[in-house]
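Why should sequence recovery work at all? Because a backbone constrains its sequence more than one might expect. Tight turns favour small or flexible residues, buried strands favour hydrophobic ones, and helices have their own preferences. The token representation captures these environments compactly. In the example below, the structure is given first.
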């Protein structure tokens, strides 16, 4: 929680100016879980997130490191897709596209249809990293736009609580190492 203060000046009908001190607190909404990812931060500024993380680190010095829940967006989508009634990937951001040994590129694809179909045409077999996917979908019975990021963040337009649950579960699944079959 972070305190903020400012002074508001108010003029009465007779022209006299009054100063009124205003203060409040920035709050951060979060949820804790027994399963991975254990901490979910909701709609927070980076300042508020840093304050929360620093406080947690100071309270639990012997705890494991706190880090972003890294996940490949395409693997995350594959884990999420059983919960989607329908979807299209309408935007992708690719980085580290190998142009030469010493030159790389960053590209954003946007479209009104699934942009994955144009991916092979654009980059061929070049190495690349998918940083972001935008999905237009029907999930939990409602239309939603979902952005999946490589650092484990997600943004979505649905107010249905099931969407958050599906995103958490599929993120945890996408982060699991593939089991080796014998």
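From this structural description, the recovered sequence reads:
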């Amino acid at each position: 929680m972070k305190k903020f203060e400012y002074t508001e000046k108010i003029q009465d009908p007779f022209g006299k100016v009054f100063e009124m001190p205003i203060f409040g607190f920035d709050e951060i909404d979060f949820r804790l879980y027994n399963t991975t990812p254990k901490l979910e931060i909701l709609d927070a500024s980076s300042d508020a997130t840093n304050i929360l993380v620093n406080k947690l680190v100071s309270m639990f010095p012997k705890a494991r490191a706190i880090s972003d829940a890294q996940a490949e967006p395409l693997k995350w989508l594959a884990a999420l897709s059983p919960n989607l009634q329908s979807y299209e990937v309408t935007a992708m951001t690719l980085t580290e596209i190998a142009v030469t040994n010493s030159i790389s590129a960053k590209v954003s694809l946007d479209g009104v249809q699934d942009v994955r179909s144009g991916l092979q045409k654009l980059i061929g077999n070049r190495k690349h990293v998918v940083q972001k996917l935008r999905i237009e979908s029907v999930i939990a019975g409602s239309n939603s736009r979902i952005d999946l990021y490589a650092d484990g963040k997600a943004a979505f337009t649905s107010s249905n609580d099931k969407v958050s649950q599906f995103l958490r579960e599929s993120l945890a699944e996408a982060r699991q190492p593939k089991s080796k079959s014998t």
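A few observations help interpret the result. The radius of gyration is 22 Å.
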